[in-house]
Amino acid sequence: MTSSFAPDxxxxxxxxxxxxxxxxxxxxSILGRSPDASLRLPTEEQLAGxxxxxxxTMRQALKELExxxxxxxxxxxxxxxxxxxxxxxxxxxxGSIDAIVAQQSGEHTxxxxxxxxxxxxxxxxxxxxxxxxxxxxxLRRDGENGEPTNWxxxxxxxxxxxxxxxADLERWPMTKVLRDAVGVDIGRITDTVEARLAxxxxxxxxxxxxxxxxxxxxxxxxxxxxxxxxxxxxxxxxDRFAFSVTVEAR
Length: 250
Fold this sequence. Notes:
Elements: H1 18-31, H2 44-51, H3 55-68, E1 71-74, E2 78-81, E3 89-93, H4 97-104, E4 108-118, E5 132-141, E6 148-156, H5 158-161, H6 166-169, H7 174-182, E7 186-197, H8 200-206, E8 213-223, E9 228-237, E10 241-245
Parallel strand pairs: 3-10
Antiparallel strand pairs: 1-2, 4-5, 5-6, 6-9, 7-8, 8-9
Helix pairs in contact: 1-3, 2-3
């Protein structure tokens, strides 16, 4: 049985254009829809009432989604989601190193840059008595010339970075490189996922509008002795990923 399409609610920010906020919220709802959701959207009036905006603002938001190819609009028939609109892939935190490695993987990885840097102030607590760290920036795509899906910024202890082969980073996620290629005994990883707005760097790399929603993942990897060896910060496109957590009841 097909369920009706229900867009998420939205708290509007008066500093941004209303049509843009509505279009981005509706965009995320379309790409994050359940597999059995109806492809037919509510009417313009119903959507305007749901978001608390005028019908004119709603039409402008729908026009943006139509130009993007996510919806089609038919006179007298209504507005429909394009069946080809890709649903979001979940970011799953399942509690194992292998699950994290699988989540960080991508079809094609490009190294944007790497090198030593002073320890950033917000990471100083993780690298005590360590004047410098080595950072790695990488972009992942769906295939060599495909759409960008996420970009990663890793901060690694220098003595560990000395043993990292860049060729491995083009094939594998950092966690796998540290564990399987460098031989680091990873004891645990602490994960945090939060919603953010795309800054200029992220917007350009992921080819999304400035201030559009993204998922920001931070993973802090500790070795067996409890020392931080890597801080990974990964920026996922909000229209391609969703946050999912599995909790075992027993």
